[in-house]
């Protein structure tokens, strides 16, 4: 159930054009996305046997914070929204404002998206 949801999300993001990781890789090469469990990772669904599995998807843009990178980030966010909206059982719960993330001694502009999948056991 959990690994199937993660694999399906990874496939959606890969199809949208991202390199996708289930952990922070040793070297980040944007555009890429990293999938983490969301704070409220697994919750019961609305019907018996149904579950809501949540993931944080961190989308990384280039290692700069200028206007061009901000515009690029907008496009990446739109790609993720379109991929999730077109996928049965997935929905977007929200996207945080872009911020700078320090990973592996480098700084990247990125956003965190909260994405859920409704699944059955």
Structure description:
By secondary structure, the chain is α+β, with helices and mostly antiparallel strands. The protein has a single domain (2-120), classed as Alpha-Beta Plaits, CATH 3.30.70.1700. It has helices spanning 2-15, 67-85, and strands at 19-21, 32-44, 50-60, 90-95, 99-103, 106-120. Strands 1, 2, 3, 4, 5 and 6 form a six-stranded mixed sheet that branches. The model has no long low-confidence stretch (mean pLDDT 88).
The CATH superfamily is Phage minor tail protein U
- The helix-and-strand class reads alpha+beta
Q: Indicate the CATH class.
A: Alpha Beta
Q: Find the count of extended strands (DSSP E, 2+ residues).
A: 6
Order of helices and strands: HEEEHEEE
CATH architecture: 2-Layer Sandwich
Distance between the termini: 6 Å
Q: Mind telling me the C-alpha Rg?
A: 14 Å
CATH names the topology as Alpha-Beta Plaits
The global form is: elongated
Low-confidence stretches: none
Helix content: 25-40%
The number of helical segments is 2
Mean pLDDT: 88
Largest sheet: 6 strands, mixed
Beta-strand content bin: 35-45%
Q: Compute the number of structural domains.
A: 1
